[in-house]
Amino acid sequence: MPQRQLAAALNIDTATYCKIEKGERKARREQVEAIAYVLNTDEKELIKLWLADKVYEMVSGESNVQDILNIVNEKILKYGQNI
Amino acid sequence: MPQRQLAAALNIDTATYCKIEKGERKARREQVEAIAYVLNTDEKELIKLWLADKVYEMVSGESNVQDILNIVNEKILKYGQNI
DNA sequence: CGTAAATTTGCCAAGAAATGTCAAGACGTG
DNA sequence: CACGTCTTGACATTTCTTGGCAAATTTACG
Prior knowledge:
The structure is a homodimer. By secondary structure, chain A is mostly helical. Chain A has a single domain, classed as 434 Repressor (Amino-terminal Domain). Chain A has helices at about 5-10, 15-20, 30-40, 45-60, 65-80. In chain A, helix 1 (about 5-10) crosses helix 2 and helix 3 (about 30-40) packs antiparallel against helix 4. The first copy, chain A, is elongated and about 45 Å long. The interface between A and B is medium-sized, with 30 and 30 residues. The structure holds a DNA duplex.
């Protein structure tokens, strides 16, 4: 499937899509959803990967990342944001 | 210690500091560091909490947060960003 | 109560960052 | 070479972040 089609599905220029595909740009949520739809893949899975990526980018390069993730985990447990 | 002093230490308006303290604004990294310094607390700990907060904000409200955290964890292990 | 200090809130503006487009060039293939 | 596709870089646009100001509210205390 040519980028042209994907790009069209996302309402963006092929140039932009290209960058997203190459990881030079972050997709936005709606775009991830649209991609899941067009490619007929599991949207939730894709969103998870996309979020994991964002989190990774936020914490990579830090020290004690495990600690940070643990703290987050505790907060999740505590406030029961698990849906 | 009055907000006025903290605010002064961060070179910002008390109003702005107030928002940060109430969680209506995110502090920026340098500000967290400055706070640690002024309050004479462990900077690394504070930064960890601050980052955990940011991550939490990013994922709370999502489903399967644990999955997401796991994925991140794997990436960390894989690419050895643990400093 | 009355006053002053401290905190909070709402709103706006400047700047930074993210996202997008365009035009030109690179790459592959008939 | 000619075509379609993909990539790149410079620049435009949109969106988010940050901070200030002024006014409102709360708190402290005589």
